[in-house]
Amino acid sequence: MGQNSTASKEKNNTSTPIRWGEFRDQALEKEFYNAEITRNLNYVKFTMLVAGMVYFLFIIPEYFLITDVNDFRAIFINRSVVLVAMFCLYFKVKRDTRYDTLIYWFTALEILISISFIFISNQFPNPDILIQAFGVMIIILVIFLINNRWLFSVFTALFISIGYFVFVAISFTDINISEFLAAMIHIAIVIFLSSISSYSVNYYKRIQYLHNIELVKMAETDALTGIYNKAKFNQEYAQMADNAKARSRDLAVIMFDIDDFKAVNDNFGHLVGDQVLKELTALVRRNINKTDILARWGGEEFVIILPDSQLEEALKVAQRLRMIISEHPFHITGAITCSFGVGSFKHDDTVDTLLHRVDERLYRAKKSGKNRVE
After folding, report:
1. 98, 112, 334, 339 from 86: Cα distances, Å
2. Residue 300: DSSP 8-state
């Protein structure tokens, strides 16, 4: 089992490698990002509200520092625009259920704040390069704390840094070269260290996500056939039964097992018996609906949940599966047959009462000559 688990992990890591701090498989990356935002939704919303309010409240010290009324008005409008953008994004996050597009919204907001910072810096009389550089470093640290793609965070950090230094080179008439170089070096160090830290966090979050997927799969699926196991069947049945009760919908269950499977193991060996189980599972999966739930109940016994199906429909499905299985030439063993028991959900049923009823019908099919549906 340990070897199978390791091999499966290696397969997952090979088919979906992590590059530039994200999954190469974009579908898996979207799935991960949605799960990450969902898990941290309250933190994300709280952070946006606090960041927006704090950024706007810097207008208070600016009121005393900016003497020109027009300059102060421009700064006030600038900070108000950023605050409104923060609130718009807050309500978008609160309303949406799919979050993969937030990557672009977060990046756009970060760039907006960067431009806003550079603009406001230009309104101060006698600005200090090192103090402004400290503000740039704070923004860079916040950028890498936001749940965004690593490459986008690096791009935005470089954007504000380069934009700031271009602004300094153009706007400052008397540049202190020592301060300018010191600011460049400190900002470069912050970007470098933040990038490494952010990359490590993004990488190991995704590795952990792959491991969690593997653990869930191991807990829910049968190791031999790859279909749901008994525990997962019970979970799915409980949800579907609750839905059937609440909405007065139909639900049916089929239970079947392989006739004389002990003879297969005795005559051909257990490895061939395992191959028959896998071949049978694949055959049944191809011939049921995607909404139907197939699970291995134990040994050579299987169950199928058919949502929105009445007893008559389930009987037709069972008869069709019985014929398909009996006519299929199984590798090595040749033809095999299965017996079926079918039952429909009643509103006072539990999983035990329904399966007991279906199991009794499967027993009758066995007693009546096998390769039958009851």
Report:
1. 19, 10, 67, 62
2. T
- Cα 186 off chain centre by: 37
Q: What is the model's pLDDT at position 36?
A: 85
Burial of 366 (0-12, 13-18, 19+ CB in 10 A): middle
Cα–Cα dist 173/169, whole Å = 8
Between CA 116 and CA 110 the distance in angstroms is 10
* Residue 9, pLDDT score: 45
Give pLDDT, residue 77. 93
Q: Is 242 exposed, middle or buried (CB count within 10 Å of its CB: 0-12, 13-18, 19+)? A: exposed
Asked if 89 contacts 135 with a C-beta cutoff of 8 angstroms, the reply is no
Beta carbons within 10 angstroms of residue 356's beta carbon? 12
- What's the alpha-carbon Rg for the chain, to the nearest Å? 32
pLDDT in the model for residue 220: 86
Backbone angles phi, psi at 275, to 5 degrees: -65, -35
Does an H or E element contain 293, and which? Answer: strand 293-298
Q: Tell me the β-bridge partners of 301.
A: 257, 298
DSSP string, 81-94: HHHHHHHHHHHHHH
State the pLDDT at residue 4: 44
**pLDDT at position 1, please?**
39
Q: Identify the pLDDT of residue 269.
A: 92
Tell me, what's the pLDDT at 238? 87
pLDDT < 50 positions in the chain: 1-14, 16
